Structures are given as structure tokens and as C-alpha cells.
Amino acid sequence: MDAAQSVRHVQKRLPEVGGSGRIIITASVGGLIGGKGVVAYGASKAACLSLARTMANNFGRENITCNCICPGYVVTPLN
After folding, report:
1. Residues 6+ apart with CB under 8 A from 75
2. Does residue 56 carry a pLDDT above 70?
3. What is the set of active-site residues?
4. How confident is the model at residue 1 (pLDDT cuts 50, 70, 90)?
5. How far apart are CA 52 and CA 10, in angstroms?
6. How far, in Å, CA of 12 to CA of 33, rounded?
7. What are the backbone angles phi and psi of residue 68, rounded to the nearest 5°?
8. What string of H, E and C letters represents the secondary structure of 54-78?
9. Burial 6-26 (b: 16+ CB within 10 A, else e)
10. Which of 9, 36, 56, 70 has the fewest CB atoms inside 10 Å of its own CB, making it the most exposed?
11. How far is the C-alpha of 55 from the C-alpha of 51, rounded, in Å?
12. Whole-model pTM?
């Protein structure tokens, strides 16, 4: 789901949430500080952060909060 679809989905569901709600978006520390060799990843996570701020601003008056969770780097066997 892209950003525009996310916003349209929330707008469509507003009448159903009963006056309040929570939106949680998973981003990454990579969206806050960036990193060498991960341009597209960092840019997409920064977009998630911006989407959360914008949605919070737009839907706050509907008593809907929007937050981002930004996990840090995790060492796994895949990296």
C-alpha cells in the first residue's frame, strides 16, 4: 500500500471508528539518520515518518492519533 492509498483508506474508515482511533506506522532509525548504501530504504522510511506527521496533523481533530515506531539496527545472520 503506498502513501496515498493509506490516506484514502483512513479517510474512508473515519466514520466507522466511533470518534477515536490509533494509527501506528513502522519506520526505522534509517529514516531519521540515513545510512551509506541504503538510499532507497532510508528515503522510504523517511517518507513513513513524514506520512505519520501529516496524518497526525490532519486526523488529530477527529481524535485519531498517528505515531511511528522506529526500531534501530538489529544484527541477524542475514546481515
Report:
1. none
2. yes
3. 41
4. low
5. 12
6. 33
7. -115, 140
8. HHHHHHHHHCEEEEEECCCCCCCCC
9. eeeebeeeeeeeeeebebebe
10. 36
11. 6
12. 0.77
